[in-house]
Records
---
Amino acid sequence: MHSLLVMASAASVALAAAAAGNAPHWSYEGEGAPDHWMKLSSDFVTCGAGKMQSPIDLQAVNARGATVVATNYQTSPLTVLNNGHTVQANFAAGSKLISGGREFGLVQVHFHTLSEHAVSGKRYPLEAHFVHADSAGKLAVLGIFFEEGAANAELSKLIAAAPKHKQDATPVAGVQFDPNGLLPPSLNVYRYMGSLTTPPCTEGVNWHVADKAITASKEQIAALHVIMGDNARPLQPANNRLIVGR
Ligand SMILES: [Zn+2]
């Protein structure tokens, strides 16, 4: 009788472990590191098998041309979250990215320290990703590099409200956030087709990365790094993709 009870409780522990295993834990170090993402779940196979993965080194420009890209971003009440991998602000409908005549609605912005994209091997200390989706669910992301310099006022609002640990989206009472404050004065971009830089690494993402960095203070960059840690995926092969630059 006693041994049956032991067996039963051992079985329930095993079941609990299996259930926990349904949500594979990916991260940026150890067992869950980017090199292992493809093995953590059958849903993550593209992370290893995909041929159009992000981020890449943007030095590999093989087409010249000015991509016509414009933003129409609006100030809205600040809502922040920490998903355990990044700090993110969500946006209400209404802000848009227009690229190649297509309209994508701004959904959220999140951050990576160091930057994920590189230019001639150089990575910046911080990169913002503005994630947009069109009516069919196609994604367009706008990457903005930050270099160390003057503090950024909008970033200060976000850092002050950023949850230190994993937390669902929370409205920040009385704070208006203007995403335009995280954009360079004129928007010229590298453009290429890539992927999400986190599992499941889905491809078909219209990438735009601004060719001019803006500044954040050393303290702001450090504050985000303290919360997020190292959350940049290593550079991926460009393969024979079209990378458009000016
Ligand atoms: Zn990102």
Note: DSSP finds five helices and 13 strands in the chain.
---
Amino acid sequence: MTPDTKFVTRRALLRGIAAVASLPFCPVRGFAQSNTRAQSIAGWQGRIESILARGRLPIIDVQATYVPGQTNVAKVISMMDETDVAQIVFASAMAADSSPSIEAHRANPAHVIPASNSGEFPRWWTRPEPFVDGVARDLKGGGYFMMGEHEFRHYPSPEQVEAGQFQRDITVDITGAAGHALFKLSEETGLAFQIHNEIEDRLLAPLESMLTRYRGAKVIWCHLGMIRYPNRSTIYGPAYVTGLIEKFPNLHFDLASPPAQNIYKPSGAHDGTLYDPASGKLRDDWRNVLESHSGRFLAASDYRPQVEQNYTRAIGFQRRLLEQLSRTSGEAIAFKNAWRLVTGTNWG
Ligand SMILES: [Zn+2]
């Protein structure tokens, strides 16, 4: 039971049930389960309303990797409370199936949004097709509101570079069988999924071919503007992202991107290309994209246990970015877009 449970008013619960009833894609058919979904949505709504009532901007953190036994859930919850993060989308990794995320939601109903497994551990890289089959089975239970992050091209993370671990240099063909199954699963269930796809010229056409083929798939391309090897990327930028947004109505991007001064050590590049490295401010051309298409971007921390101590700082980066936008765009990106993707209805 959380302090926010008291904010789950009867009105919020009824609105939650109405939201679930209107979902065109709801994979849940039984009333009992639908009612559970409605209660989950009502709990999240109550917590968002309680943060708004304090005059603060709630954030729904859409990208976080929950590792059972490693994630200090109580600490994460307390950091969320400190930083007015309303909800965190927990996709579990290093687990046999997606159920730890449901358990984390049951224990912290107002804070945690359950998502299917995160494709960020060897079971995904080594056997991606059975991994997606497993996700499809999990989703039939009806308890999930999003799918986790799937790595199609992934360079070692900064903390892995520090530890000298270069084995997490991952390639899974996005046009392979697992890619097709994942995009199709999103079309069938209506649930959004996240991809990690490093920004390289040669990877853009395959991604676009999948977006063209599966126009109903709800794809969140994580880490907007994170370019770790600039010599491999000459196409991607504000104009290219605008073009994608105009072509693909279900494509979103999250802002779990490195801050201005960050350097990706293996290449020596400033990989947070949203910012001007000198001023640390959002570049004007990127701000224009975020303002013009504010319905397509999402706030995110990229939480994982190895960098748990950085959570408050990561949310601080998100807030500093949002503060450079208009209030309307800031609210959309902070929580309203995520609300729409998670619940299938517009906020309010
Ligand atoms: Zn990622």
Note: The pocket of zinc ion is lined by residues 149, 196, 222-223 (CB under 6 Å).
---
Amino acid sequence: MGLGDIADSLTRRIEGLGASAHGALFEPVIRLGVTGLSRAGKTVFITALVANLLARARMQGLAARRDGRIEAVFLQPQPDMTVPRFDFEAHLAALAGPEPRWPASTSSVSELRLSFRVRPAGLLSGLRRARIVHLDIVDYPGEWLLDLSLLDLSYGDWSSRVLERIAARPQAAPFFEALAAADPAARRDEPAAKALAEAYTAYLRQAREAGLSDCTPGRFLLPGDLAGSPALTFAPLPRPAGRSPRGSLWRLFEARFEAYKAEVVRPFFRAHFAGIDRQVVLVDVLEAIHAGPAALEDLRRALADTLTAFRPGRNAWLARLLRGRRVERILFAATKADHLHHSQHARLAAITEALLAEARSRADFAGAETRAMAIAALRATTEETHEHEGRTLACVRGTLLDGRNAALYPGELPRDPARLLAPAREGAEKWLDADYRIMRFAPAPLTGAPGEGLPHIRLDKAAEFLFGDRL
Ligand SMILES: Nc1nc2c(ncn2[C@@H]2O[C@H](COP(=O)(O)OP(=O)(O)OP(=O)(O)O)[C@@H](O)[C@H]2O)c(=O)[nH]1
Ligand SMILES: [Mg+2]
């Protein structure tokens, strides 16, 4: 056991003590992780979930609500003093204000505690006293999970993997130009290091914009307060022939890569990831389909990479940190399903399931129960059908960001997911037999009575799967 491991197990033990010390001794706490790659829909999901749990009129799919056992739901100060609070009120004001708009992008971890007063289920439910159950919701970027794979890699191995994967990508051309001008064995010099790191970060940003997801190190895209620090100032380099001299650029980057693992990646897993009981992974499958086969294949790989975090047996360090603890349920939710007519939702869920199939068959998620679902945290559209050249097209209608009202025919998803996944895997350039469209709709102004909650698709079913059994 190394020093780091001792520190890890100590932190876990102290955290365990903390949980019982702050009054939660008899009040169960469910820690729900909400993650997804950037723009997947995390902020909207949490905001809509909390708003709908506070109001509950649209949450019939939640058994405790249907049975009338939920007496009250209220927001509480969270127990973690040093984690930013999820800014629920600001995000809700954006979504549900007089001029509804989407909340701003967030780039770090945040947390919110919601508490339920529930009567127990069963025959005696009317007699037994209600109890308090806390739901701690933790929002963290999926990109940070990708970094788990770095823990097993040396700088040299990571570099060669990345360089090989991105060699043919047009977005990487400027970075390869910068690399050609650099000499890994040359004496290190900070401006050269910075220029390479910037070129690599620029590549990551463009790759992300092009819909690619395998973007490590994750913090290069979402640096938060680490922007500009040495631990974020490196890039992959081709291995110099022979031993790289001390004081070379290669050695500098190697040291920074190790620092990134020790000072950035491990603390995240220790502080935020280790305590999670239930997890939802939000996936913008529609956007990837729309962006084309390469983006879908990339999403599949990125998902497989992020999901290694939920099979801790595959990573010795994480397995030691968790010491047998595990995430009990994982929901894979294809978001923004309101872009599709409901007749296609089952197909979207099937595609999501198939995207995960490989990750799943390699090993199950250490006994976790998993499910795939198509959801919309905030429904921005209504459905309608149109006759076109003798065919009936199932469309959705909504208000575009510029205020115009438009109907969208997104294209018909195939019944068999392999029709999309196979060409994606084989490197097809575009979809052969179909065209998939997407439009950016603005959130619709609320029409329901106040206190009715926000319109959604299957958010109640998602909640039931994630924590309904604990209420
Ligand atoms: N139509 C529709 N669009 C959605 C829904 N959820 C999210 N979106 C869209 O997706 C965008 C991103 O949603 P966010 O919740 O901000 O995503 P995020 O994962 O928190 O993004 P970052 O904070 O940037 O990582 C929003 O601005 C909306 O345009 C939904 O339920 N329906
Ligand atoms: Mg966000």
Note: The radius of gyration is 24 Å.
---
Amino acid sequence: MNNKTLLDTAKKFGTPTYVYNAETIQNQYTKLKNAFDGIDVKLHYALKALNNINVLRLLKNEGSGLDAVSIEEVHLGLRAGFEANQIMYTPNCVDFTEIEEAISIGVHLNIDNLSTLEKFGNKYGNTIPICIRINPHIFAGGHNNISVGHIDSKFGISFYQLKHVVRIAKHYNIVINGLHMHTGSDILDPDVFLRGADLLYEAANEFPDLTFLDFGSGFKVPYKEGDIVTEIELIGKKIADSFRNFCKNYGRELELWFEPGKYIVSESGKLIVQATIIKQTTSTVFVGVNSGQNHLIRMLVLMDSA
Ligand SMILES: Cc1ncc(COP(=O)(O)O)c(C=O)c1O
């Protein structure tokens, strides 16, 4: 989107206006989809990254599924036209009634808590296969608040509690068809993906009914010039090699899933604002605009005083 396009858009729709470039989103989706050396990975777009319904429709048309973390996100996905079975629902600390509602809708359920697993087993037994979110105890992510796979994180069931998962699953006859892990967002060190993958492969040996492994996300995009970026082809090839090897040892072909958010949409959007006033103080020039943190918490916007 060049400045002329942005100015034309501002004239047509007024300001402030969010504008997204569909081509950027499509290109990022395709780049990620093709990065895994011939493996047909399933991508579930993490809609928390940007929940504009037209962006969801665009990604649905590209063939994406959805990663939803609340029942509201599930409903938004359905409204955008996704089928229930295209949605992976990964709640954390929600009331069990929300999980019951999601089950009645028919989405994939990803459980990240032993007590929820007990409740699920007690009510549903082996009637619906489920996925288990594992906490791999890996500290990764751009900063503390988006590092969610470490030992003190509230997300996932500890890698060291897998024996409890197996015991509960046996007791209630629960079918576990997937294992999931998401260590954090904005991951700086790509080796983290491989360390996490190795842990999932090890965990998978405890679960004979798996049909997929979900490696979450965390692919890094640039926020400013010179920023570290995940070299997706490089890491894709390494993960694909290790995954093929794992499937051989497991004895069956499984599906490989990811749930990218930022990687797909971060570079696609602009907030167009109108400069309202210029204020010169003794030290600084401030440009006032007709928007605020209510529209963009991190106010790094392209401003045009035209
Ligand atoms: C469970 C889960 N999956 C996927 C994502 C998307 O991560 P990213 O935006 O880094 O791609 C998040 C982000 O917080 C998440 O919590």
Note: The domain at 23-265 is CATH 3.20.20.10 (TIM Barrel).
